[in-house]
Amino acid sequence: MHYDSLVLQQILEDSDQIIAVIDANSLSLLYANKKARDFWEITNTTLPDKPCYRALFGYSEPCIFCPLKRANQDNKLTHTYRKGNGIFKARYKSIIWNGRSAYAVYVQDITEVSVSENIYNTEVEAIMNSNTDTQGVTHLDLDANIVLYSKSTLNTYSNTLPKIAEHCIYTFTDFIIEESEKYQFRNHFNPSNLRLIFEMGQRSLSHEYRLRKKDGTICWSRLTASLIKNPTNNHLECVLFAIDCTREHELRKSIEEINLINQAISSDYGTIITVNIDEGLMHIHKLSSNYNASSIDMPNDCPFDEFFSAYIHNYVLPEYQNDLWETMNITNLRELIAGGKQVIRKVFKVRPNRAGQQNFEVLLLPVLKDDKSNFVLVSKCIDDLVAHEEQEKQWLQAARNEAELARQEAEASRDEANAARHEAEASRDVANAARREAEQARTAAETANKAKTDFLFSMSHDIRTPMNAIIGFSDIIRKHVNDPEAVLQYLDKLQSANSFLLSLINNVLEMARIESGKERLDEIPMNIHDSCDGLRSIFENRFRDKCITFDLQINVQHGDIWGDSTKIREVYLNLLSNAEKYTPVGGRVLMSVNELPSESEDIVIYKTILEDNGIGMSKAFLPTLFEPFTREKNSTDSRVIGTGLGMPIVKRLVELMNGTIEVESELGAGTRFTITVPHRIVQTTRKEVTTEHAADVLAPKFAGKRILMAEDNELNAEIAIDILSDLGFEVEHVTDGIECVNRVEKTPADYFDLILMDIQMPNMDGYKATRIIRRLEDPKKAALPIVAMTANAFDEDRQNAFDVGMNGHIAKPFELDKMLTTIAHALGLL
User: Cα–Cα distance between 361 and 467 in angstroms, integer?
Assistant: First the structure.
């Protein structure tokens, strides 16, 4: 044997694959490696020169299925056969073996693959045959992104579907009616989500949608995706069914409506009426003959307002009529229901009916849980309940009278020993209770005083910090008055300290307003991207200075929303400021704003996550995190300054916006805040002057405009006059409301273009002065634009200004661009 053949044979001996060599002409077995000898149980290591069918299988004649016989005919050199419980695949390849024409045979065990393929084929066939009444079925290969099979009912979908799997899935949205449902479908049935739920162990996904067929009719359809792995190529495949469930929906709705009406009929309600709120129509199901309403000459189906108006006018007592009509008219009911009201109840009193009944309760509730169109109105007599309540009042008064009589009798019988002893014991009990209450009150007062004392110490420190900066930079500016560039730099730092001081004061006032219940939302159109860009510009340098990695991500589809931008910004500022304070050098801070799916097309839900890997908080402190004046007593007290008001303000502002806030934290591991808040979507974009360059844009329009300024503080007046004069205004100054009114009365009607009115002034305040001007006989003077410029900066102060007839409100200390924009609006320049 040639040396090369010996080397090749040695390599084949060590192979893990079953390999044999067969003579192409005589079919003699020329060679079998160790794996092959073990497989065919050939004991003699020196192979006999026998035909392969005799050496391998013990046959006396060639195998009937022998592929070598057919090799020259159809060139198929593969064969699959069984051996015991196994399935094997043999491949044949022409070679030259020691100078002889031969075939190399490679045998592969495919038992597991064959079983998996059979299971896969059976499962696919079962899925395909499980729904015989489908509107359509589509078989997709998600990994190859191709359509394997598709079939649809002609009057439901298009005859042809895309050949790309992802496009085919999204084609279904062409038939879905509601935009919110289209959005939901894309979220659930996109290939990425299908792969995710398969990896999580879920094998099917099903949702119901309203579809419009090719012929224009509308139906309910249940879309179901069944997921399966193809063992041949290990691809994830999806079988997507659409089943018409319209009848099921209609039956379910009818059953629920019938159950609700039957429940009402079987109860003690004497009146049962179904109302279509959208159409304003009603249908009478039950009306007791004793009730006054049975005398109204109207058909069972009629306009709701006509029936209810006639009933109120003819039978409800006068003192209840206005209140009942204002609530139960169809226009108000639509508004209440659109605002989320589900159950509406009123109690009223009528002229006695045939049964002598007078007190009634009317109740309006939806037929179905989420149905905002169809409602059931029921009414019943509550005379027994009113009488019972009245009797309870009488019993209570009688008990009070008896108690008073007993007390008087006890006082009159002090000379009796037993009474005296009982009275003494009662007095001691009262004294002990009083002492306990006093002790509790003292403890509570001490706790409150300590918390407020700690708060005042913190406030003193925090206020002194920016004050020291303001005083220090003011002195430095005086020294560098001839260096404009240095002055500008120090002015920027002074402004920063001033802003911080104002923010600190506002923080305390904000908490006071929240505690008093006066805080409210002032929603305006805003853009979440612009708001977060502002936050980024504030904190990037601060995080960079501490070598903290800061990542801010905005993932929203609807960026323009209605929101109270000031309160939203305050929430984010508080959380980011805390993250910066409590995250050490080299840490990381991540903030993400994500949009969640919403059931309403007009509402967007923002989920904001802000997390850091800072010092964290203990589990014991977390329950008190949102209580005022509290801070965790740990090693950070000596290094981080705070008032303990930031987090209570954040929680109350989030709740004011109908949102929720959750916190997770662990000492040494960091903190994670999750805020979820709903917002109305801005449908149209308003064109307004951007405040960034308001002065440059508006200054040419202000030239020659004359302003009357009512301001009692000379320094404030001097600053405002100097700024406004530089912008082209002509400014005249008075110091109180009386002077302001006199100046307007004595000057021509067109003399002044605008009044800037302070509120708190001697002799006459700005509110009273405004009311007098609005009542002047000269209509032009009475209509003169008036803008409040005041330190009364709360929302109710702003509303008070508008209530007395002012045209705008500027809070002190004023921001120049906002002040100019407000003045421009009042003058009609915007």
Answer: 63
Q: How far is CA 314 from CA 292, 361, 689, in A?
A: 9, 17, 57
pLDDT in tens, 327-371: 989 999 999 988 888 789 999 999 998 888 889 999 888 877 667
Q: How confident is the model at residue 687 (pLDDT cuts 50, 70, 90)?
A: very low
Nearest to 810 by CA among 830, 785, 788: 788
Cα diameter, the chain: 141
Quote the DSSP letter at residue 294.
Answer: G
pLDDT digits (tens, 9 = 90+) for 556-602: 999 899 988 888 988 998 899 889 889 999 999 999 999 998 888 88
**How far apart (Å, rounded) are the C-alpha atoms in residues 300 and 52?**
97
Whether the CB-CB separation of 680 and 603 falls below 8 Å is answered with yes
How far apart CA 789 and CA 737 sit, in angstroms, is 13
Could you tell me if 694 and 678 are in contact, meaning their C-beta atoms sit under 8 angstroms apart?
no
Residue 829 burial by Cβ neighbours in a 10 Å radius (0-12, 13-18, 19+): middle
Total Cβ atoms within 10 A of residue 734: 22
Which is it for the CA torsion 408, 409, 412, 413, positive or negative? negative
pLDDT for residue 48: 58
| H-type alpha helices, 484-527 | 484-516
Burial (0-12, 13-18, 19+ Cβ within 10 Å), 428: exposed
The region that residue 436 occupies, defined by phi over 0 for left and psi between -120 and 50 for alpha, beta otherwise, is alpha
In this prediction the pTM is: 0.34
**Angle, helices 330-338/318-328, rounded to nearest 10 degrees:** 50
CA distance 90 to 40: 13
**Token duo for residue 202:** 């879920």
**3-state percent helix, strand, coil for the chain, nearest multiple of 5:** 45, 25, 30
Average pLDDT over residues 50-56: 76
Residue 792 has pLDDT above 90, yes or no: no
Cα 295 to Cα 289: distance, rounded to the nearest angstrom? 8
With contact defined as beta carbons under 8 Å apart, do 603 and 542 qualify? Answer: no
Looking at every residue in the chain, the average pLDDT score rounds to 81
Q: How many CB atoms lie within 10 A of CB 613?
A: 20
CA dist., res. 289 & res. 302, Å (int): 19
Q: Provide the CA 761 distance to its chain's centre, in angstroms.
A: 46
Q: Which residue has the tokens 């359809």?
A: 221
Per-residue pLDDT tens for 479-535? Answer: 777 888 878 877 877 776 676 676 667 666 666 667 666 667 778 888 998 888 878
Residue 341 has a pLDDT of 85
Cβ density class 742-758: b for 16+ within 10 Å, e for less: ebbeeeeeeebbbbbbb
pLDDT one-digit tens code per residue, 551-565: 999 999 998 999 888
Q: Considering only CA atoms, which of 770, 763, 778, 762 is closest in space to residue 826?
A: 770
The Cα 567–Cα 572 span in angstroms is: 9
User: Which residue is listed with tokens 């006032």?
Assistant: 509
* Each residue's pLDDT tens digit, 104-117: 888 887 766 666 66
